[in-house]
Amino acid sequence: MQKIETDRLILRNFSVTDAQGLLEYSAHPRVNCFLDDKMSTLEEAALRVQERSNDDSYIAVCLKDSNALIGELYYVKEEQDTYAVCWNFNARFEGKGYASESVKAFFKYLFIQKGARRLYAYVEDDNYRSQKLCERAGMRKEGYFLEFISFTKYEDGTPKYENTFQYALLKKEWIKQQHSK
C-alpha cells in the first residue's frame, strides 16, 4: 500500500520495527473480538509483524513525529465493492483523536483507491469507544444482532455470545458528507 499521511499520523504497511508496539496493545486485548490475536512474547509479535508486512489489508497507524506504532486498521474485501473494516488501538493513545483521524483517512483510501461502494463494521454493544468512532467517521447504525458471535467462554465452559451492532457507510453517503464540511 502507498503510505498515507494525515496531520499527525502515517498509515503504512507494517515493518519489523513495529513488533514492540504491536505487542504492547495485543498482549491484553480490551475487547473480546481480539482475543484470538492475543500474544505474550516479542517473538510472537515479530512473526505477526512479518506476516502483516506483506499484506496490504493490515495498515499500521504510526505517529508522524516518531514513527511509533499506536494501532492498526484492516479490511476484508467481501464482494467486489464491499469491505468489512476494523481497528485496534493502544489504550495509551486514547482521547487524542488519533483513531478518528486515521479512520477517516482509511475510509478515503478505501472509497477512492480501492473502489469501495460500501463499508461496514461490527461492534460489540459494550464497546462504546468503537461505537463513537464509527459515528465520528460518518457511519450509521444499521443493525443490532442479539447473541451474534462468541469469542470467549463463561467459567462453566459455555460460550459467551456478544450482542453486536452493525455500522455502515455507502460511498454516496461519504461523498455527501465530504461536500457538507
Automatic annotation (TrEMBL):
Pfam family, one: Acetyltransf_3
Keyword Transferase part of the UniProt annotation: yes
GO MF entry, a single one: acyltransferase activity, transferring groups other than amino-acyl groups
Domain N-acetyltransferase: 9-161
Keyword Transferase: yes
Keywords assigned: Transferase
PANTHER family, per the entry: GNAT FAMILY, PUTATIVE (AFU_ORTHOLOGUE AFUA_3G00765)-RELATED-RELATED, N-ACETYLTRANSFERASE DOMAIN-CONTAINING PROTEIN
Protein name according to UniProt: GNAT family N-acetyltransferase
